[in-house]
Specification:
By secondary structure, this protein is an alpha+beta fold. The chain has two domains: 2-135, Fructose-1,6-Bisphosphatase, subunit A, domain 1 (Fructose-1,6-Bisphosphatase, Chain A, domain 1), CATH 3.30.540.10; 147-255, D-Maltodextrin-Binding Protein, domain 2, CATH 3.40.190.80. 32% of the residues lie in helices and 30% in strands. The strands form four sheets. Strands 3-4-5-6-7-8-9 form a seven-stranded mixed sheet, with helices on both faces. It has a three-stranded antiparallel sheet with strand order 12-14-13. Strands 1-2 form a two-stranded antiparallel ribbon. Strand 6 and strand 7 (119-124) form a beta hairpin. Helix 1 runs antiparallel to helix 2 (37-53). It is globular. The termini are far apart.
C-alpha cells in the first residue's frame, strides 16, 4: 500500500509542478488564506486515485467540503493537496502534496511529495521514515539551548534557539525535524489535521516526537478536524520544549 500511495502522491505532485509553470487562477478563500485552481485540480486527482486504492476509506481534505460520514469510517484519507500554497503561487519550492492514511485515529502511512525540491518523503507505522528511499533519523540532541528552529526570523531577544531556513509548508518543516535538519518545530495556534497527519508520522518513525502544542498525542479524524498547534522535536528535547512552550500554548488554546 505504501508504494501505491507514494505513486499517487508523486503523480499529484508532478501535475502541480507542471501547472506551476503555466498560468492559473488564484484567490483568497478567506483573508490570508490563498488557494489556486491547481489546489482543486490536485484534490480531485487524489480523491479519484486514492479512492481506487481503498474505496471504503473516508475522505478529509483542505479543499473538499467536509462530509461527517467520514467519522463512522475505520480508515480515512487525510490530504492537503498543496501544503505551502503561498510558496506555490510565488514560484518557490517550499510546498508539497501531503497524503496520510489514518486508521482508528492514528496515521499508518504518510507521504509528502515536494517535486520542486525533488523530495519524496515516506513513512509507514513501525517501518521507519525515508527520503527518496534512504532512511532518515531525527537528531540526537538532548539540550534545548541551541536547538535549530525553522523560522524566517526569531523574535527579538530570543537566544534559546538557532534559526534555520524554512519552507512555507509546515509539513516540510516537520520533515526537517524527521531528517535531523532541524531539532524543533513549535506552533501555538489552532490548525487542521491535514497539515500534520503525514508529517507527524514521518517525525515519529524517524525517532522524534510529534504532539500538539500542549504535548498531547496527535489524533485524527475528529469532528472538527482541528488540532491545537504542533510540537515536533528530537526525542531528547521534546519534554523540555513542551515545558518551555507551555504558557504561550495554554493561552492560545484558551483563545481557540
Amino acid at each position: 500500500m505504501l508504494d501505491a500511495i507514494a505513486a499517487v502522491t508523486r503523480e499529484a505532485g508532478e501535475h502541480a509542478l507542471r501547472r506551476s509553470r503555466e498560468g492559473f487562477r488564484r484567490w483568497d478563500k478567506a483573508p490570508g488564506h490563498p488557494v489556486s485552481e491547481v489546489d482543486l485540480e490536485v484534490d480531485r486527482l487524489l480523491r479519484e486515485r486514492l479512492g481506487g486504492l481503498d474505496p471504503d476509506a473516508g475522505w478529509l481534505s483542505e479543499e473538499t467540503v467536509d462530509d461527517p460520514a467520514r467519522l463512522a469510517r475505520k480508515r480515512v484519507w487525510v490530504v492537503d493537496p498543496i501544503d505551502g500554497t503561498r510558496d506555490f503561487i510565488r514560484g518557490r519550492s517550499g510546498w508539497c502534496v501531503s497524503v496520510a492514511l489514518v486508521e482508528d485515529g492514528s496515521a499508518t502511512v504518510g507521504v509528502l511529495h515536494a517535486p520542486a525540491r525533488d523530495e519524496l518523503w515516506t513513512a509507514e507505522r513501525g517501518r521507519g521514515a525515508r527520503l527518496n528511499g534512504a532512511p532518515v533519523r531525527a537528531s540526537d540532541r538532548t539540550e534545548l539551548a541551541g536547538a535549530r528552529f525553522p523560522i524566517d526570523e526569531l523574535p527579538r531577544g530570543e537566544r534559546l534557539f538557532r534559526a534555520v531556513a524554512k519552507p512555507n509548508s509546515i509539513a516540510l518543516r516537520m520533515a526537517m525535524v524527521a531528517a535531523g535538519e532541524a531539532d524543533l518545530l513549535a506552533t501555538a495556534r489552532w490548525g487542521s489535521e491535514w497539515d500534520l497527519a503525514a508529517a507527524g508520522l514521518l517525525v515519529e518513525e524517524a525517532g522524534g516526537v510529534a504532539t500538539d502544542a500542549l504535548g498531547r498525542a496527535l489524533r485524527f479524524n475528529g469532528p472538527g478536524a482541528r488540532v491545537f498547534g504542533v510540537l515536533a522535536a528530537a526525542a531528547g528535547i521534546h519534554a523540555a520544549a513542551v515545558a518551555n512552550h507551555g504558557e504561550r500554548a495554554r493561552a492560545g488554546a484558551g483563545a481557540g
